[in-house]
Structure formats: structure tokens, C-alpha cells
């Protein structure tokens, strides 16, 4: 077994389901002007169905209300359109050759399902989405919400732990992570847990730090996550391996990249590979 370190994301990777995204959208809709709520829900449903210009893997320029198609590896703009999908060639030219910098205030990376209702709400005039995010996290810790656990995940991780180091890196805060790991019955499974990681800004730094700490080569590390910008592109750029979990087929092809719709598919691939060895 060549791989010596596996780095996992948490949200959208180690548990499944989208109910919490819909709950977040529902809470945000309350802050949308009443006359715009119908359009909000229409756009959000189209986003989920892949029928809207706003989609996972793109970026949203808040100031210009523009949707940017970006190269996930170089983070440069390929195309810019307005909310209705009309080309914004002048804006695209302005960005040409420049790497997009995500601050999640004026430039949003739409990396996973959390950002679809967020961007939709911002477009319709909601200035502060954070209180509704906090409400959603509280809902996720209540008896009303049940995480969709992944069958055999714990046993798989424990087996993997015997052969390699497994680390969790997540943007969620420590309290939230402790709760989620307890609910998922994954307490104590990981060798190391890094919370409030500020991905993607600090992703590369964490990867480099772990590479040095465990004294291994980049191609002996695997990053597993559902956010291409946060976990996958930084890994591939460093020469690491990556497993991208997404229902939406990404056009990026790379010899170190595997894409699956859910982590259970990757677990099956790993178990089949182990049987062949």
C-alpha cells in the first residue's frame, strides 16, 4: 500500500443528505423581500436540478452580481454571465489572467450545497446570511434532524487506520465537530482532527504541514472531500491524490483524481482493490 496519509473533509463527505441545505434555504427565504420569494425558490430549485447558471464549481461576484465559470486548478475566469445567463464579456476580460481570490464576502466560491441558497439569498438582497446558518446548525443538532450515516464507514476507517494515518480537516468549529463525530459514532477514529481550518485559504498550508510532519511524499497522500476548490484542486496541484465526492460530474480530468457520487462508492473501490492485492 503506497498511500500513507488520508485527509478527510467532514460536511458532505462523512455523512450524506441535503435536507439541511433545504432548511437553510427555508430560513434564508424569510429574509428575502416577500415580492421576491417566489423567484428565490424558483431559482434555488433550478440550481439543485442543475438548470441554473449558478452551480457547484462556479464562483459568484457579489459586487457585479455575476456568475463566473472558473478553471478549478488555476482559479482563473473562463466565462462571466449575469443572473439570467447573458454573457458579460467586458467583466470576463477584466478578470483575464488573474487568479480569483475568495473572501466569501465579495467573491464566493460555490464549492458545495451550502453555497447555493447563500448565493441565491444574496442575489435577492439578503445582506447577512450568518444568523440563518447558525440556526441551521442548531437544527442539525436537534432531535428533528437525523444524519444520514454511511453504512460500514466506521469499520472501513478503522481498517484504514491500521495501515495509514487518517486526519480530519474541516471548516466547522470544534464544538460542532465533536457533536457530529459523536452522532456519527466516529469519536476517536481519526489520528488528528483539525477544526476551523479556513479552507481553501489555508488548505495548501495544512497539506504541506502534514506532509512534513509525517515525512512522506505528496503522492503518498490522499485528500477526500466534496468541495473541489477546498480539498481537491490544492491536493492535485501539490502532486497528491484526491477523491472528489459529487453528484455533479466534473469536467476536470487528472491522473491522480477519482470522482464518485458518494463516499460509499470509493469505499467499495478500495475494498475491491484490497482483495486483488
UniProtKB/TrEMBL annotation:
Mind telling me which Gene3D superfamilies this protein's record contains? HAD superfamily/HAD-like
Q: Which SUPFAM superfamilies match?
A: HAD-like
Highest taxon in the source lineage? Bacteria
Please provide, alphabetically and separated by semicolons, the GO molecular function terms listed in this UniProt record.
hydrolase activity
Pfam families recorded: HAD_2
For this UniProt record, give its keywords in alphabetical order, as a comma-separated list.
Hydrolase, Magnesium
- Would the keyword Magnesium be found if you checked this record's keyword annotation? yes
State whether keyword Magnesium applies: yes
Instruction: Give the matching PANTHER family.
Output: N-ACYLNEURAMINATE-9-PHOSPHATASE
Q: What is this protein called?
A: HAD family hydrolase
Recorded source organism is Evansella alkalicola
Lineage, broadest ranks: Bacteria, Bacillati, Bacillota, Bacilli, Bacillales
Amino acid at each position: 500500500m503506497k498511500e500513507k496519509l488520508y485527509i478527510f473533509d467532514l460536511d458532505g463527505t462523512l455523512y450524506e443528505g441535503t435536507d439541511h441545505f433545504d432548511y437553510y434555504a427555508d430560513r434564508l427565504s424569510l429574509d428575502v423581500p416577500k415580492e421576491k420569494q417566489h423567484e428565490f425558490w424558483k431559482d434555488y430549485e433550478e440550481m439543485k436540478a442543475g438548470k441554473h447558471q449558478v452551480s457547484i464549481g462556479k464562483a459568484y461576484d457579489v459586487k457585479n452580481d455575476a456568475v463566473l465559470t472558473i478553471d478549478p486548478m488555476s482559479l482563473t475566469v473562463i466565462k462571466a454571465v449575469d443572473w439570467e445567463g447573458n454573457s458579460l464579456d467586458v467583466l470576463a476580460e477584466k478578470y483575464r489572467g488573474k487568479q480569483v481570490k475568495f473572501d466569501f464576502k465579495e467573491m464566493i466560491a460555490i464549492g458545495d450545497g451550502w453555497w447555493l441558497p447563500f448565493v441565491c439569498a444574496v442575489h435577492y438582497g439578503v445582506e447577512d446570511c450568518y444568523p440563518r446558518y447558525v440556526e441551521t446548525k442548531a437544527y442539525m443538532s436537534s432531535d428533528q434532524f437525523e444524519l444520514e450515516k454511511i453504512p460500514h464507514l466506521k469499520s472501513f476507517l478503522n481498517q484504514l487506520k491500521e495501515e495509514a494515518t487518517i486526519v480530519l480537516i474541516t471548516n466547522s468549529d470544534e464544538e460542532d465537530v465533536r457533536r457530529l463525530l459523536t452522532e456519527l459514532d466516529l469519536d476517536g477514529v481519526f489520528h488528528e482532527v483539525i477544526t476551523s481550518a479556513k479552507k481553501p485559504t489555508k488548505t495548501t498550508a495544512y497539506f504541506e504541514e502534514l506532509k512534513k510532519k509525517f515525512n512522506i511524499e505528496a503522492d503518498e497522500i490522499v485528500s477526500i472531500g466534496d468541495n473541489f476548490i477546498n480539498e481537491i484542486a490544492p491536493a492535485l496541484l501539490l502532486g497528491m491524490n484526491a477523491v472528489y465526492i459529487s453528484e455533479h460530474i466534473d469536467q476536470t480530468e487528472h491522473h491522480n483524481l477519482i470522482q464518485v457520487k458518494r463516499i460509499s462508492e470509493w469505499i467499495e473501490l478500495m475494498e475491491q482493490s484490497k482483495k486483488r492485492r
